[in-house]
Amino acid sequence: MVNPDTLKKLLIWLAAALLLALAWGLPASGALNPYVVQILMYVGINMILTLSLNLVNGYMGEFSVGHAGFMGIGAYVSAILTVWVLPRAWAPFAFPAVLVAGGLAAAAAGLIVAYPSFRTRGDYLAIVTLAFNMIVKSVLENLEVLGGPRGFLGMPRLTTLPWVVFWVVLTLLALRNLVYSNFGRGIMAIREDEVAANLTSVDTRRLKVYAFLVSAFFAGVAGGLFAHLLQFINPRSFSILKSTDMLVMVYLGGVGSLMGSLLGATIFTVLLELLRPLGLWRWVLGPLLLVLLMIFKPRGIMGFKEARLLETGQGYGGGAQGQAAAHAGGTG
Amino acid sequence: MPPLLEITDLSHNFGGLRAVSDFSLTVQEGELVGLIGPNGAGKTTIFNLITGVFRINQGRILFRGQDISAWASHRITAAGIARTFQTIRLFKELSALDNVRLGAFSRCRYSLWQSLRRSPGFREAEAAVTRRAYELLERFHLGRYAHVPARHLPYGEQRRLEMARALISGPQLLLLDEPAAGMNHAETEELIRLVGELKEEFSLTILLIEHQMRVVMNLCRRVTVLDFGETIASGPPQEIQHHPAVLEAYLGRDGELAGGEPGAGGRPPWLTP
Q: What pTM does this model have?
């Protein structure tokens, strides 16, 4: 019998390769019009944001409401790199490194937010993250060098559909690997019962740092992709409203679920696009959806459930056979 | 060879309330010591002090000769002190398998980076901890619940799962906080047998909090009785049972009830062997 984990791995890599090929081929062949390609890229960026926020809000059970702050830091840092630091000709080749740099800057900020999380939980930590988001926004607004409230522009359009797909797949795999590891179990134990987690030897402080680092890193990468898609960013793009959108996507798709994150990001982004005729009113959708979700389905569509394809590490070595061996050998 | 656990002059206050007062206890390797007393006597507080849930302000705790008084909980647990809880504290949404694997958190030694890229070292460590977790689930007759969220398990199974989680890391000292709470007669008999077996099988030293005298009488050679944070008696359970201070703590000076509930013959049920 084939080990199910090996089979899943094969399937995931096949799907990823196919997706990348499609992302490359479809726009180039003209089968997808540029508008659709643009929406797909937004969906992808939102997937990265939702996956990364879900690590803290869904898996760890904290309530971070300032995720746009990390995204903003990633966006500005990567934009500064491509506009001021790197020669224009290098930019396309250095793009992955630029995104990683933006992610690292965001991760550094994640470290700052992780420290208060040692002492506060729930509502109080939510206030800390809210404050963080507001600080990032007002610092950006008051930095005249970066254009202040008018924003920062001049980035080359480096974000393409294949790049977005690449980063979505990378984020998904990294988070899946993290979630189905000792660290992931520890992070979920913090959500379930922090005291009991400490008493089963889980170093909760270290895990909180890890969770915020990884979460902020990918939010920063998403910010970089966003900046080089729009070619223009301003502080208002990274306000509480943006954070609210991310919360909606997490709680719509499902807390503590990777597949849920992908679903939530897709549904929300497409829905918002379809409601374009409503004009300004469509911005009411996000907050309204959040209120309704919290009342009627606080765990979202896939809450704490995972698609079989993404699950891993439930057996060991030989999968079902290994489990049978454990049954036979475990009685002694 | 120092004693496994040496508690000296441990005191703890909640606000103005003295929960534990000058508590001392030495436990040698291989012993099974009981800790009894009426509700609110400070038994669980002592467990919480040993395992670092509360910060120790007065007194000292040595584990294998090492001062662990200022250590964080996770470090104390990783050093070899595992515990269960009076009210079950499982990770409810997580599978029984994950609950048990979490018990071995400190035994999984790979880095964040290794886990993100699933390095060979990561795979080896995960396979090892998973294999051991399945073994423990089988040992506690929980194999068929491996992939079931802990909250769906029946009560007795949840109690056993807590023990499996505590034992996977191979602790030297096990703290059991009222393991027979909420169990009927037959289940209690079964538990007494299980604790005795586990002690041999896992070479454990056990410190046990229990209300039911039957459990203590059957398992412990030595018992310490607490009342309002003070140690009022210490010795073999047969002696303790008739100790005047103990009877007074539970029954009151004039035979009125101060502690536990009335039982047959004017004795609280926990005192009835």
A: 0.90
